[in-house]
Amino acid sequence: MKKNDHVSIMYDLQDETLEVGPGPLKMHFSLASGQLTRMINNRTGVDIPIQQSYLWYGSSSGDSDPQASGAYIFRPNGGPPTVATRLASLKVTRGSLVDEVYQQFNSWIYQVTRLYKYKEHAEIEFTIGPIPLDDSIGKEVITRITANMVTNGTFYTDSNGRDFLKRVRDHREDWTLEVTQPVAGNYYPLNLGVYIADGKSELSILVDRATGGASIQDGELELMLH
């Protein structure tokens, strides 16, 4: 019989932050809010404040736009996205090769973050649903990563899983864009990933399925999840 080397730990919320990661990549979580606050790569020296949150855009019903939001159409109702929660429960499992962080953001959003001893990236697995509809509002659920970076409206998305193409918010290379959809008009299809860079550091997200991504504000990346 082999001894289990994984230890599950619940932390005292009176502490301030928790560092997770058995390898060069470290992630810091606030024990007061349960949210990600910082990422550090001890090999490269990168150390950036960073946040991750779950939000949802209210879906347009078509009363103020000729096209309603639907299964293959993203049309938010024009209002700002609603933050799902500002507090998350936090549980950590530590092992010799991998640390896992379990977060529950509300009754229908869960997340597991894994950091491996010999890897310099974090793996995130989310579970969403069933999405509540008791308020009769459709919800376009996203996750948003916010970093302390100056990106000047520029981000990069893959083209059919091949080269990454430069995207500039509210801009098209071949014609003058009339912005009527400031959110949906800046979302692009992702098969591989999306990243932002500012000359000092780069923040990349790789996806395991086709989805949509955007950078609506400088230093931010959004992924459409549901």
The CATH topology of the domain at 1-55 and 82-134 and 142-147, please?
A: Beta-galactosidase, Chain A, domain 5
Rg over alpha carbons: 19 Å
Q: What is the CATH class of the domain at 1-55 and 82-134 and 142-147?
A: Mainly Beta
The name of the CATH superfamily of the domain at 1-55 and 82-134 and 142-147 reads Golgi alpha-mannosidase II, domain 4
Which architecture of the domain at 1-55 and 82-134 and 142-147 would the CATH scheme give at its second level? Distorted Sandwich
Oligomeric assembly? single chain
Distance between the termini: 42 Å
Strand percent estimate: over 45%
Note the main sheet: 9 strands, antiparallel
* Overall average residue pLDDT: 91
> Helices and strands: which structural class?
mainly beta
Helix content: under 10%
Q: Write the element-wise H/E pattern from the N-terminal end onward.
A: EEEEEEEEEEEEEEEEEE
* Total beta strand runs: 18
Q: Write down the overall geometry.
A: globular
GO molecular function, one term: carbohydrate binding
GO biological process, one term: mannose metabolic process
Pfam family, one: Glyco_hydro_38C
Domain Glycosyl hydrolase family 38 C-terminal: 24-226
What does this protein look like?
- This protein is an all-beta fold.
- It has a domain of 114 residues: Distorted Sandwich (Beta-galactosidase, Chain A, domain 5).
- 0% of the residues lie in helices and 46% in strands.
- It has no helices and 18 strands.
- Strands 2, 3, 4, 5, 6, 11, 14, 17 and 18 form a 9-stranded antiparallel beta sheet that branches.
- The protein is globular.
- The mean pLDDT is 91.
- It holds the Pfam family Glyco_hydro_38C.
- It comes from Anthurium amnicola.
- GO terms for molecular function: alpha-mannosidase activity; carbohydrate binding.
- InterPro entries: Gal_mutarotase_sf_dom, Glyco_hydro_38_C, Glycosyl_Hydrlase_38.
- This is Lysosomal alpha-mannosidase.
